[in-house]
Design a protein that fits this description.
Order of helices and strands: EHEHEHEHEHEHHEHH
Shape: globular
Helix content: 40-55%
Strand content: 5-15%
Radius of gyration: 18 Å
Number of domains: 1
CATH topology: Rossmann fold
Strand order of the largest sheet: 3-2-1-4-5-6-7
Largest sheet: 7 strands, parallel
Length: 266
Amino acid sequence: MKPAACHTLVTGASMGIGKAIAADFAASGENLVLVARSRTLLEELAASLVSEYGIDVRVCSEDLGEPGGPGRVFEYCSKQGLVIDRLVNCAGFSVVGSFVRIPRAELHQMAMVNMVALAEMTRLFLPAMIDRRKGTVVNIASLAAFQGVPGMGLYSATKSFVVTLTEALDAEIRGSGVRVFAVCPGFIDNDQFYNRAGHDRKRILVPISEPRVVIKAMRRGLISGSVVVMPTLFDRLMVFTQRVLPRRLVVMLAGYFAGAGEKLSS
């Protein structure tokens, strides 16, 4: 019997970084499973990639912020007989402003999408990779993971979760033939992300990079063996300076550069 073709599964694939990653893998001739909430956007992307590259692209429309969402994605792949040899956890969003003003529904949704869904997706797909002694899990984290960011406190906390989970998993599965690593970009050009977050990008005081820097970093991670990958020299310098500056100053500067904070009225 002919073995099933392998697929790369990308969450958050309908726009932004996830869409760019999916297109990059498609250009390399890799089959895809695209996951996001909008079936319309996913089907448009799938049709474009199939037409241009002649690959197999499956669409799984699912809200990963809903309970059971990751399980339904896994069930879809299982019923279709798809072998997922690479999982790219890219789905995520932010809400900018004071933590005490974040609507509770948004708080729970962000925690579900940025942390719980990522952990569940990894837990569901990783065992089969280990059994095959082949596979990769790529977690898209953020430069915000390395310190609290005033005005983006919950978002930065969720991305810290992603980095620490990735580091632990790398140690747990080392020698299994499977890789797990995180890519930690700074601000990326993605108007949908900023509009969803309510983040005025004109207030951001650090460089905003194109999505391709994330793709290049991911490609480096695939061949380098690094557990945490910073896309740009600026990102690496920002993390390095934290080793010499007082922690409170690091947090204050992060909030200043992000331009996301707000003052509470007295």
